[in-house]
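User: Show me an example of a complex going from sequences to structure tokens.

Assistant: Sure. Here are the input components:
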Amino acid sequence: MAVKSFRQALNEAIRIEMQRDPNVIVFGEDVCGGTGGTGEQDAWGGAFGVTKGLLSEFGSDRIMDTPITESAFVGAAVGAAMTGMRPVTEIMFVDFLGVCFDQIFNQAAKVRYMFGGKATVPMVLRASYGAGASSASQHSQALYPLFTHIPGLKVVVPSNPYDAKGLLISAIRDDDPVIFLEHKMLYDIAGEVPDEAYTVPFGEIGIVREGDDVTLISIGKMVGVCQEAAKSLSSMGIEAAILDLRTTSPLDEDTILEFAEETGRIVIVDEAYPRCGIAADISSIIAEKGFSSLKAPIRKITPKHTPVPYAPSLEKAFLPDTERVVKAVVEIVGDSL
Amino acid sequence: MSAKIYPITMPKWGMTMEEGIVTSWLVNEGEIVNLGDELAEIETEKLANVVESQASGILMRHLVNEGDTYAVGSLLGIIVDGEVSEQEISLFIQNFSSKQIIEKDRLQNANSNKTIKVGNIELSFLELGPDDTETQGLVFVHGFGGDLSSWSLNQTGLSGTFRTLAFDLPGHGSSGLQVSTGSVTELANELLLAIEKKKFEPIHLVGHSLGGAIALMMALQKPEFIKTISLICPVHNGCNVNIEFLDGFLDADSRKAMKDVLGMLYFDTKAINRKFIDETLRFKRFDGAKEALLKIRGSNFTESGEYTGKGADLKDIGVPIQIINGGNDKIVYQTSVNDLPSNIEVHEIEGTGHMPQMEQYGQVNDLIKRFVINNSG
């Protein structure tokens, strides 16, 4: 099987869906690159190069650059979707979605419900998220909990190239609005990705690793952190299962509770802020529905409740890392093995 | 007879197996073992099974601990036949490591799937065993919804004696999904073309489930190619297939649903683990995979699961046939033995469901081996 980068996997998903369905269109800031200016056509492919090459293949009727007004073009995506198009809209940083909360929270998320299913909003909002590039507080947040909070939105956060392609194809084919978040430190990671079209469904956790002693529940870039931690733990005689949420809405509660029952120990590793976050949400689900399975308190590994720092040393301290995961696991496993 | 030292090694069950866990030793150090005895339980990502002894003698050493993981080809223990000194055993163990690496390389090279193009479709196949045309050739044909890895335990087990070739059927595994009608005739013809292109004939066929019907059709089309047919839980004229499985497999889109469906295949449902379920679902989620399976289902079975494919009448086939059935097969409802032509050998294997070639692979391999050798005169 061919080895491709996360970025290539996403590009392939959009390309395949644009070939399959003429209603799929793409717009966002610099997704073509250089149009309207003096720059080279199709040079840039968006801030992270994901849409590069699509302009040459599909032409300017199907992929276009927008002005720097997220509120306007996200609103346009909602309208286009309601008329039957399938817009895939790129926002450079999820942090910028703050200026179009009404379009997302009150329009996109509510249309199908408030019109009794007579209108749907099959749109995908792609954005980068996450810390690690020293991009400072306004370009580094992991804001998926905000969108998970809103009924009517689906929220996808892939951790690897195979899933990225399959989940983005599922997102484009989905009839509901999907927030699709890509960790900016993952674009260059590589993995096996088939050339063909395939789907990865929403609401099905990825089982990354099996293990009897503890379950690490994670998402996006944190899955890799857990994989590193599991290796260290294994050398200490502790076998950790790793679950990759893949989508926070819908959420695969069944698999979470199944592993809570099997391992009895849970460590949730999340890059989002700790208050009202995914880790807190999952922790409460297990406490309510799986309490009797637990052999130890649930542990949450998240950043502190602070803005993402700019200084690289502070940013490193902010992010959950392998060391913190290993330490937490050792604490709850203790001498009980 | 001079004394001999035999290694017990981590087996390779299937293409993707790289390591296994020795869950427990079944024979203590110092105990006598015979050829074929169960020595240790091994668990892999996909299945749990036992290592059978390749020699008779005394199990002298356990070289690995229960619960630990070892790479394919690793030395797990030593069997000694006759008087052997401690020194000789130590020397054997020392020398083994280098051989082991070579063996691992050989397996890795042999085990990469290849493809062959027939008509407009790429068929994926795995070829194992000697590379000389003097040796008898075995071709394995899997069933509906399966892939060539259904034969992993048989292909590895029999490739010491025979040339072996297993295909992914059109619409299955890593083969192309371009199925035209999906009829058994179409599938049989594509396999025959591939075998001819590879110059692998004449062959002994081993067909499982719907692969049995395909094997019979192949024999009907090209009797000169086929020397014997071993059918495992086969579909043939007059058979009914459990539609809870057939349609359940097509519909299953969640782990839970797929677990229930795959569970019907085995006597002991513990054989189904999450990895197996995930890989099955992953295949079904390729664009066109379900459509290809639907065509095959529609072309060969009525709504109630009766087999309607042509040319799979056991009476019409001139070559020797044996049938190996699972004692608790919940998928194919076989015709009563009395209704079969009297020259067909029928074996039933206790403690197996629809997958005896995996559940009791040792017994099935022995039956295939004996049947092929007896009819190769």
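The lines above are the inputs; the final block is the predicted structure for all two components together. The longest helix of chain B spans residues 86-110.
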